Amino acid sequence: MNTAELGDRILNGERRALARAITLVESGRSDHRAQAAALLDRLSGADRQALRIGLSGTPGVGKSTFIESFGMMLTGQGLRVAVLAVDPSSARSGGSILGDKTRMERLSREKNAFIRPSPSQSHLGGVARRTREAIALCEAAGFDVVLIETVGVGQSETVVAEMSDLFLLLLAPAGGDELQGVKRGIMEMADMILINKADGDLKATATRTCADYAGALRLLRKRPQDPEGFPKAMTVSAVEEHGLEHAWEEMQSLIAWRREAGYWAQNRAVQAQYWFEQEVRAALLARLSTTQARGLLGRLGAEVRAGKLSPSAAAERMLADLN
Q: Could you write out the DSSP letters of every residue in 85-125?
C-alpha cells in the first residue's frame, strides 16, 4: 500500500490502517523510515489534535486496570480513546511480552477504543523511540484522547512528559515509606498524582497517602503553567471505578485553563523543538552504526586496550574522521 492510500484510510479512521502505519513508523529500515516520514508529513496537514495523557507509576500500582476503567468511562461519554502501551524489552533477548490487550479485555473489545502495545527496545525514559510518531497517527485517525502508558520503572520516566499535554503519576497506598515511594524528579513533572486502590481495607491508607502527597506538592516550586490548586493529589479506585469522573473533570478544568492562558500551544511548540533535537542526536548516533564507523571504532578500541592511545585521544580521532 502506498503512503497516499494509507494516509487516506487513516484519516477515515480505519483501525487496520492505523495499526499498519504504527508498524511502519516503528521500523528501523531506511526505506520504511522514508515512507514513514512521507506519511507523517501528509497527515500533518489534517491538523487534528487529541488530548495526550501520559501515565507513569511503579510496577503493580494498577496502571492497566486504571486505563481500562478510565478508558471505558471516556468511551461511555462518546469519546474515541487510543492507548499506546510501552512494554519493557529483555536486555538479553530483546523481546517483550506485549500483553496489554489481555490485561484490558473489556476495553480491547470496545469499538471506540484502540490499544497498541509496543516494545521499549533499548530506548530509555519509559517510552518507545517512535511513540511520539504513533501519537501523531492516532490524532490523524480522529481519536479524542490518547493515553500513553510507560513501562513502569517509576523514577526516570519523565520523557513521557515531553510528548503529553497532561502527565499523571499513579501511586499505590503505602507503597514504601510514603514520600520516598517516588522521588522529587518525577513529582515535579506530574500534573496530577492519583492514589489508586482506594477501596476496601486500603481506603483509609490511601486517604492518608493522598494527604501526604498533597502536602508535599504544596512545598514544590510553583509552575507558571498551573492554575491555583495544581498540581494536586486525588484518590481513585480503578476496580470500583470510584473517583474517575471527578479526576476527569479536574483534567478538563486544567486543560481548559491552559488553553485559555496560551500554555497549551506553547507547550506543544516547545515539545516539537525538543523532539527535533532528539532526532538530530539519534541521527548522529546512527552514523556510528555504518560499516566504516564500526571498523574505525574497532581499530581505535584495540589501540586503547593496548595502551597506545588514551580514551580521550581516541575519541578525538574518531570524531575527526567522522567529520
A: EEEPPPTTT------HHHHTHHHHT-TTEEEEEEE-TT--S
Buried b (16+ CB within 10 A) or exposed e, 88-102: bbeeeeeebeeebbe
- Residue-wise pLDDT tens digits, 225-274: 999 989 999 999 999 999 999 999 999 999 999 999 999 999 999 999 98
In a 3-state reduction of DSSP, which class is residue 168?
A: strand
Whose CA is closest to 137, among 127, 125, 124, 146?
Answer: 146
Cα–Cα distances in Å, from 174 out to 92, 132, 216, 241, 243? 33, 33, 15, 20, 19
Alpha-carbon span 182 to 191, nearest angstrom:
15
What φ, ψ does residue 182 adopt, rounded to 5°? -140, 135
> Could you give the C-alpha distances from 58 to 151, 181, 283, 315, in angstroms and in order?
9, 9, 32, 38
For the segment 98-144, what is each residue's pLDDT rounded down to a tens digit? 556 667 889 999 999 999 987 765 444 445 568 889 999 999 999 99
Q: Are 197 and 236 in contact (CB under 8 A)?
A: no
Q: Angle between the 263-286 and 244-261 helix axes, to the nearest 10 degrees?
A: 90
